[in-house]
Specification:
InterPro entries: RutC-like_sf, YjgF/YER057c/UK114. By secondary structure, the protein is of the alpha+beta class. It is 22% helix and 28% strand.
Length: 130
Amino acid sequence: MMIKSLTPQGMAPPFARYAHGVCADGIVLTSGQLALNIDGTVPKGAEAQAKLIFANIDLILTEAGASKAGTLRINAFVTDRAHMAGYMAARDAWLADVPHLPASTLMIVSGFTRPEFLVEIEVMAQTRPA
């Protein structure tokens, strides 16, 4: 099995020694993505953060030869129930033109590496959507 590490241009690099995603045997797994612009800034609000995260996930999927149409599962984490609506609005917009609904989990967590991060999202997709 060949494993390809995915760290696309156009997004902030990973925080440590890991890839933003990996692709193996037609399956793409992203690392948990936080809302960090390439210039190091963090958007304000859960919806703005989720929109940036999904845009970065698009970059990761594209590097793997996949797209959001191949999304199988979304795991998302927010730091407060108050952030659920913003996250869900961004998720629903991202999935608006996807022909199927993926599995999805949303969890409330106590926090991330920096207090300004409100949302983290990871995706599993296939490179050849059914």
